[in-house]
Amino acid sequence: MLAARLLAAPQSEARELIAKARAVVDRWERDRLCSRHYISRWRALLAGPVERVARALIEPSDWTDALFQNTPWSFALPRRRT
Prior knowledge:
Number of helices: 5
């Protein structure tokens, strides 16, 4: 869903969302809120053009589940209804 949102959004909006996620990772590093393993992996996933980032979000890897348990995208994910 997040990858589709990035691809469907105007380029400027998609780049802004990615920049916001990168800023979250920067804060994790600055404030030591997250393991360097997560920080380095998220930096790699968030690098490059919108299409590459979107593709990286849906490509399975050994780290996929772990990364999305500690995601810089929480601001962009839909809220759960209770």
